[in-house]
Amino acid sequence: MRGKREFLKHEYSPGHWSIDYTRAGTSIAVITVRNKYHYSVILNPTDCRGYRIIIRYLNEGDSSLSSAFNRPYTISEQRGLNDVASLMTQVYEKLGLIVQFSQLGNNSQSFDKETGVTLIGSEEEPSMLHLHMWGRGDPDMEYIAGVPLRGPEPGLMFDLIAKNKTHPINQHAIKWNEDELKACLAMFKLKLAEYVNSPEFTEEFGDTLKVTIHDKKDISEAKESSFGFFHKMKSASEDLTTLDKTLETRDDKINPFG
């Protein structure tokens, strides 16, 4: 029937990237909303422009990660994604950036012109509730010491899947180098930790969010940029309260506070 949508039924292996999602080494945190819904925050492993991150819904409670694949999502699950996005905007704003984000999923969708059916989910990439977030500003500015923002100038469209390497409106993705990735991870973890321990976080979110920083030892290495003058940031690790546990995985289940 034309206009119909169908969800792919497929079992993904424990080694599939959507299950073993921390293996890229770009994980920032896991955030639990209302003690029920778990979301991951990672730097986009394939594109450093705008300090891009991906916020993804993982699962409910101790259910498997695959339980959140290739299906419709509840209002509560979608609202939780928005809550985490609201939290992460603070990291970008505290770096002096304009925040933009988009909820997509194009890579997991296909359309059959003959039947008019939209298929959601593929064997290569399951449909997952997620959004992309990035910062806008001076592309040449190091808002994080040693890491230029990159990306198109403000006012131009930020094409997330750009392939053209020359057109300024369609600037291509840029891969991370190891040093820049390390610096960006450290700064995001530091800024997130500082905000979570602030009165503003308590006022805005109360006890609805619990944040688990992944490998929080990295934050002691963070350096902040201020118009070319770098200074060592004080470690926030001593102040972490709700951030005591690092991410732990068991099979394809997540237990962020185990």
TrEMBL record:
Pfam families: HIT-like. Residues 26-187 form the LPG0439 HIT-related domain. InterPro entries: LPG0439_HIT-like. This is LPG0439 HIT-related domain-containing protein. It comes from Legionella pneumophila subsp. pascullei. The lineage of its organism: Bacteria, Pseudomonadati, Pseudomonadota, Gammaproteobacteria, Legionellales.
